[in-house]
Amino acid sequence: MSFTNEQAYCVATYRCFEEKADFHKKAQSIAVGLTVGSWTDIPEARKAEMEKHLGRVVSVDVHEPAAGESASARYADIRIAYPDVNFSRDIPALLVTVFGKLSMDGRIKLIDLSFSESFLSAFPGPKFGLEGVRGLLGVQDRPLLMSIFKAVIGHDLPALKEQFYSQAAGGVDLIKDDEILFENPLTPIERRVEACMEAAEQARRETGQKLLYAANLTGPTFGLLEQAKKAIGAGANALLFNVLAYGFDTLAELSRHPDIRVPIMAHPAMAGAFYPSPHHGISAAVLLGKLMRLAGADLVLFPSPYGSVVMPREENMAIKDALLTGDAADYRYAAGAGSALSLKQSFPVPSAGIHPGLVPLILKDFGTQVVVNAGGGVHGHPMGAIAGGRAFRQAIDGCLADVPLDEYAEGHPELKAAIAAWGLKG
Amino acid sequence: MSFTNEQAYCVATYRCFEEKADFHKKAQSIAVGLTVGSWTDIPEARKAEMEKHLGRVVSVDVHEPAAGESASARYADIRIAYPDVNFSRDIPALLVTVFGKLSMDGRIKLIDLSFSESFLSAFPGPKFGLEGVRGLLGVQDRPLLMSIFKAVIGHDLPALKEQFYSQAAGGVDLIKDDEILFENPLTPIERRVEACMEAAEQARRETGQKLLYAANLTGPTFGLLEQAKKAIGAGANALLFNVLAYGFDTLAELSRHPDIRVPIMAHPAMAGAFYPSPHHGISAAVLLGKLMRLAGADLVLFPSPYGSVVMPREENMAIKDALLTGDAADYRYAAGAGSALSLKQSFPVPSAGIHPGLVPLILKDFGTQVVVNAGGGVHGHPMGAIAGGRAFRQAIDGCLADVPLDEYAEGHPELKAAIAAWGLKG
Lengths: 426, 426
Known about the structure:
alpha/beta, Alpha-Beta Plaits, TIM Barrel, 2 domains, 5-stranded mixed sheet, globular, isomerase (chains A, B), Diketo-Methiopentyl-P_enolase (chains A, B)
């Protein structure tokens, strides 16, 4: 069997744990079993024709347990190339091909995916992306600041509007709905959007600053487009979407639709059902990185390595790289050196447990192409939510001016109070 | 805080592993954090009004590690009741509420869900269900037999038709597409359905037996309904659907749609990304049992405990129970004793590694309300695929006649050859 690169392949990398298996044999059985079924059963006369449908083993890297490690730590990273001709150019088809039945076959985790140029070309990717979001806000030179509603369930429109205003007035760039706020009689989406956009306008008159409000897009799948149009019609200038509860293709369909003229923010709700196990599921970099960007998320939330909902720093950096890289080789199988990736960047939004004293660390880890996202760090500020927003903006300004934050805080009482309350890191 | 049952709640059960945590405190923080956010922050005057939005701790069962067990084995099963008033009556809203952010919060697995009567009433469930499928086939008194195409990728219509006929002629009741067969130029869905239904008709004239052909429903989410109508228009009398690649709500939307006049068979592709870890994800009984039935799957495939893709028997039985139970108490939180569940049954289809000699074991585990499902066990029969189907039907007949299969095989050469090839169990 020859393996030429002339044909288009998508490549899956698996980490596969087995104490005794012949991993090369296992790799072969995956490559054949998930494509043509059986190679030996194919009549000789048909083999030439069937070869283009056959999966290929790209590599098998076996990691034997180190001295003192248990035999159960033995694993191999197996890369299999699947011919594009076998599946349609959508994410469900790709995932069912590479990790449908195989996901149930013992201790195996999908740790990477790369795509053929042709598969990739079927995805317009983020409609706005990082630069587009910056353009809408007119902010090019600093990390953005996002604030999350505190409590929203059981609150009425005036309460929501007041909470919105107190976030906006502090100078935040984006405000998102709580992901657990669904259609409800107190704050239905159109009324909520109207009320919040009024509060945004009021704050803009005072701060001179634009703001994006991501309204939570929820409800039955086949009604999402209508629901989104209602929200946009009422003035929503962004949408929040619980992607994993609906599947990546629904995001892709929404994102590529011409009537969705606003950025989509992907929430990671349910992601913990997939990525944390070392032995099962899908890695965070694939789930919250590559697939979110491919499906067209303009901004992607994921657990930060700083707060209560913790993700190891290494996984965070892998998500960031997947959202920001411009190098086609990171996404495209057999891409030429130095060629540019066709997808716009998705804005990384590391979330949970963020307070102003963490800003130096966030900027060290993520650079300036990041959205600093806070909930309690805004609302819980000792001087109130408006001061909370200001403290974050001061922390960002201090970092960009390269002034140590404890020093910068001397002239900025909101930042000083935040550091006194929550400390300073980095 | 009083906790009355007058209000509607959906209840999630989590298995939560922590070496030192105060699990009662943790349970409280989940119940409050995922509903009203914070109880102490709510002004006294508003508490009466907010109480209906507050989550409640139903129970906390702590399992301390046994002597000799590692501290990391310490866990608690925590049950939290979430007020219906907080979420819309769809599966994404429920899952995002109960296991959105929480899924990322350490070692925690969603192991059970029960629903309020009101939430449940929003779901018509399977349109046909087990009895409906039996009715379409006219078979009431025995387990059904299903056969899976062997290899399909790269095959043209005549080859597919021939393979279909050789399965149908052996007496199988259902034939399903391979879940990795997508829209493709060789066998597009309408042409494929026409060819296969012709083969079904040819077999019916010979065997006198009806047959359901589940065509694989694939492609972009917002086009699935049109794609399904095309398949049904071309004669498909069932559909196969990779539910987890699209989300449960898409199944629910399809299943409840009046134009989907055929049973839907749920494939478990990607399920292994969720259920196998003891510490993360969603249990098989919730994922492939309760949620599939709630979303309206008429038949549900899941890994059998017999074959190469193995699931422990206990988990298999839990899925079966979830698909078949008629007791409302298994689904409904605070259901009255002995009340009947409103959902039709979903047909359980344990799959992978099935050969005729396993039929006694399958019937022992599942009774007669089961679909015996085979791929290699039909196609790999020493006397060919037609004989493969017959061998299974003979095995089923022998079991129902209460004759030991080795004895029954004496008068049935196809069964005898199957047992000689693969052995006999149970």
